[in-house]
Every structure is written in C-alpha cells, then in structure tokens.
Amino acid sequence: MALNWDDMRVFLAVARHRSLSAAARHLKVTQPTVGRRLSQLEENLSARLFDRLPDGFVQTAAGAELLPIAEEMERAAETLERRQASLADQVSGTVRLSVFETPAQFLTNHLPEVRERLPEIEIEISMAHVNANLSKREADLVVRACLPESPELVARKLGVLSYAVYGSKAYVEANPQAQGPERYSRCNWVSFDDDHTYFAGQAWMRDHLEGQKAAVRVNNGLVLHEAVRKGAGLGVLPCFAGDADPSLVRLTPPLRGVESDMHIIVHPDLRQLPNVRAVMDEVIRLFKQEAPRLAGVSTLAA
C-alpha cells in the first residue's frame, strides 16, 4: 500500500503536538479532519499508532517505527517544494525575505528601485526577531547580523551597519547638554526593553548610563526611531536611518564596538532559483552601493 503524504503529515502533527486539536491548529484544518485521516491511516496499516491517554496521544511501538519514515517523507517533501521552481526560465514569482527592523527599514527605502529592476518579482518582507526556518521554506532569504547555526545554509557578508547617538533638533536645542558628556546623566534616553538588550547599541548605552534605565523602553526599532524623532529623548540609531532624517541631529561619530556585520542567508536548494538569485544579487548590490551610508561615514566626508 502506498503511503499518502497528507495522512503522514497528520501523523507527524499528532506525534509532535500530542492532541487532535493542537495538530488541527498546526495544519490549519478541522479537528474531525485530523481524526478521520488518522483513523484511515491506522486502518490502512492495520496498526494502532497512538494510545489515547488522559494526558495526550502517545505513540505505540508501531507509531515509533513509523515516525522516522514519516520524517524522511517530510524532508523529501520540503526538498521538492524548494526545488520545484528550479526549471523556470523566467525570473518571476514571489520571493520572501525575513529581516529584523533595521535592514527592513533599509530595504523598504530602496523598494522603488528594486521594483524597477525586478518588475516581474513579487517581494514579501517579513519583519521578525526570530530567524525563519529556510529548510521549511518559511522564507527564501534571511538578512541577519548573526551567521546561521546550521552548516547546510549558505551565508554571504553584505557589509557593516554602524550606529550613533541621535536626538531630535527640538530636543537638542532645549537640552544643550545633549551635545556633551553630560548627556548621559542629564538627558532622557530611549532604548529597547529588557527582552531586547542583545540588540545593537544596548550594551553600549547601559555602560554609559551607568546602570540607570532609559526613560522610554520599546520592543521595536522603528518605534524607537519615532520616539527619538518626536523628542522623547536621545537614542542609538542606525546611521543610514538617522542621517537621512532631517528632524534628527547626530551627536557622536559611529560608535566603536557597536557595528554589526550583516549577512544574507539562503538554503543551497534555493540559491539557484532564478527569482531568489535575482533578489539576492539585488540585496548584495544595494548594500555595496550604500556602504558609506550604512557605515555612517558619508555625512562625515561631506
């Protein structure tokens, strides 16, 4: 009997989530559908795959034996999904990029240019702090400061992203101490909250504020930028964004030790797809073209 991949997906979901309702939510189907397909699979195999216990579904010996086979089918299905467009002659279709706020802001600034150069490609930008799973095709490309943990993924360095201290013109005019060393003790500051202290510039700010907490704390880089722009206090912002905002004043050179090496990451199965390759090349081109602004040196040279 040939195994049906849809039935095996149901089996895997129940094995991982240990309930029909949780498996149904994961698969985005109804609970009766999950129960029916699981019963059909057990009938086809003439084997009980789970014991229905009060605390959830537990695999039987037959279920444990089937699990690695189902996982192998899952890996094959994921590989097929990644490679299905590899025979396409046209550079078209949808390419999904997973990025956090700072590179998302940089890329959206250049979207008109990208769309003009790649008119047949639909681009989805997903902003997230957690890396997308490229093997499961949660995204086609990831732009991150950190290198991938998985050795199977391919990473290429894009360039250096620098940060500096900024304040709104109105805030700096009202608080002249913002332009000198007294800024750390006599000015309000805007930072990320305690769950995001690993973001660029937060350790530097903590050291310079000598343990004092910022007056405003957020969990999103775009909100942080807006809070500084509105005059809520001083903040550490990426130079390309702060220098381009006419309402802001840069108060320091690029901060040493706060730079981020940006990388673009792709699964090797996706790297040769025409549309993914085209978007990857375009992102690499943009980072190279804008390197002085990203490094925060263009305004210093002006």
Describe this structure in words.
This protein has 302 residues and is α/β, with parallel strands linked by helices. It has 3 domains: 5-83, Winged helix-like DNA-binding domain superfamily/Winged helix DNA-binding domain (Arc Repressor Mutant, subunit A, Orthogonal Bundle); 93-161 and 260-301, 3-Layer(aba) Sandwich (D-Maltodextrin-Binding Protein, domain 2); 163-250, Periplasmic binding protein-like II (D-Maltodextrin-Binding Protein, domain 2). Helix content is 45%, strand content 20%. It has helices at residues 5-17, 20-27, 31-45, 61-83, 101-109, 111-117, 169-174, 183-186, 202-208, 221-229, 239-244, 268-271, 274-289, 291-294, 298-301; strands spanning 50-53, 56-59, 93-99, 121-127, 141-144, 154-161, 163-168, 190-192, 216-218, 235-238, 248-250, 260-266. It has a 5-stranded mixed beta sheet with strand order 4-3-5-12-6. A hairpin with a 2-residue loop joins strand 1 and strand 2 (56-59). The radius of gyration is 25 Å and the shape is elongated. The mean pLDDT is 88.
